[in-house]
Design a protein that fits this description.
Elements (H helix, E strand, L loop, with lengths): L11 E5 L3 H13 L3 E5 L2 H10 L4 E5 L1 E2 L2 E2 H11 L4 E6 L3 H4 L9 E5 L3 H13 L8 E4 L2 E4 L4 E4 L2 E2 L4 H12 L4 E3 H9 L9 H15 L5 E5 L3 E5 L7
Parallel strand pairs: 1-2, 1-3, 3-6, 6-7
Antiparallel strand pairs: 4-5, 8-9, 9-10, 10-11, 12-14, 13-14
The structure holds calcium ion (CA).
Length: about 240
C-alpha cells in the first residue's frame, strides 16, 4: 500500500517539464496528493523559481526547449541539496541512468503513471536528509536501481538488464498485481527486439534466480492480468 501519512507542513515541489498536458496531469495528481507544485516549462523559468523558493523535491524532465535537464540539475545542485527525480523517455533510459551519478536520486520513465509518481515522490521525501539510495529491498532481496545490481543476502544474482527492469517494477509494487502492460514497458525500455513471450521468459529467469539464491520472495502469475511479488515464505503458486 502507498503510505498516506500527512505531513506537518505542505511539501513543495518544482516540476520542470515542457510538455504542457503532461505537466498539467502531473501537477493535478501531485496537488491532489497534498503537495504544493511550482511548474517551470523551461530552464529559464526553473532558474527563476530556484532563485526565490525553497523546495523539498525537484522533478526534472531532461529534454527542455532551452537546455538540458541534467545540466540544469547540476547547476541547481551547486547551491541547493534538494532531492531530485529525473523524468525520462523509455528509449533514452540506458543513457540516462548515468544521470543518476550526476545528482539525481531516482528516475521515472515516461509515460508517467500518476500513482507511481506520487509514491516515488513520497518515498524520496521520507528519507532523512532527502537523499534516496535507490536500493529496493524485500525478503533479503536487494535491487540497486543505480548500479542495476540484484543481490540476496549480499550475494549477487546474475540477471540481464531487462529482467532487472521487470523485477524492479514488481519490487516497487510489492504485494500488488503489476499489469502486463507496465512490465512490458520495463522490458521494451531496454530491448528493441522483444518477442511475444519475452515477459514470460523474463519472469521465468527471475524466479529461477531467486529460487537458486534461496530467496523467500515469490512471483505469482495472475492469469490474464499480470504478476505479483510477495515475500511470504510459505506462499504457493
Ligand atoms: Ca521534454
Amino acid at each position: 500500500m502507498i503510505g498516506q501519512g500527512r505531513y506537518s507542513r505542505r511539501m513543495r515541489l518544482l516540476l520542470v517539464e515542457d510538455h504542457a498536458s503532461l505537466a498539467d496531469a502531473m501537477s493535478r495528481a501531485l496537488q491532489r496528493a497534498g503537495f504544493a507544485v511550482d511548474h517551470a516549462a523551461n530552464v529559464e523559468a526553473a532558474q527563476d523559481f530556484a532563485a526565490v523558493a525553497d523546495y523539498d523535491l525537484i522533478l526534472m524532465d531532461l529534454g527542455l526547449p532551452d537546455g538540458d535537464g541534467l545540466d540544469l540539475l547540476g547547476e541547481i545542485r551547486r547551491d541547493h541539496d534538494w532531492p531530485a527525480i529525473i523524468l525520462t523517455a523509455r528509449d533514452a533510459l540506458p543513457d540516462r541512468l548515468a544521470g543518476l551519478d550526476g545528482g539525481a536520486d531516482d528516475y521515472i520513465v515516461k509515460p508517467v503513471d500518476m500513482l507511481e509518481l506520487v509514491a516515488r515522490c513520497r518515498a524520496v521525501m521520507r528519507r532523512p536528509g532527502g537523499r534516496l539510495g535507490t536500493v529496493l529491498e524485500t525478503a533479503g532481496l536487494t535491487l540497486d536501481t543505480t548500479q542495476r545490481r540484484v543481490a540476496h543476502a549480499g550475494r549477487t544474482i546474475a540477471l540481464g538488464r531487462r529482467d532487472i527492469g521487470v523485477l524492479e517494477q514488481l519490487m516497487r509494487r510489492k504485494g500488488q498485481v503489476v499489469p502486463r502492460a507496465v512490465l512490458e514497458d520495463a522490458v521494451y525500455a531496454l530491448d528493441d527486439a522483444v518477442t511475444p513471450n519475452a515477459l514470460e521468459a523474463a519472469v521465468s529467469r527471475i524466479r529461477k534466480g531467486l529460487s537458486e539464491a534461496g530467496c523467500a520472495a515469490n512471483i505469482h502469475t495472475v492469469r490474464g492480468v499480470g504478476w505479483l511479488l510477495d515475500d511470504t515464505a510459505d506462499a504457493s503458486g
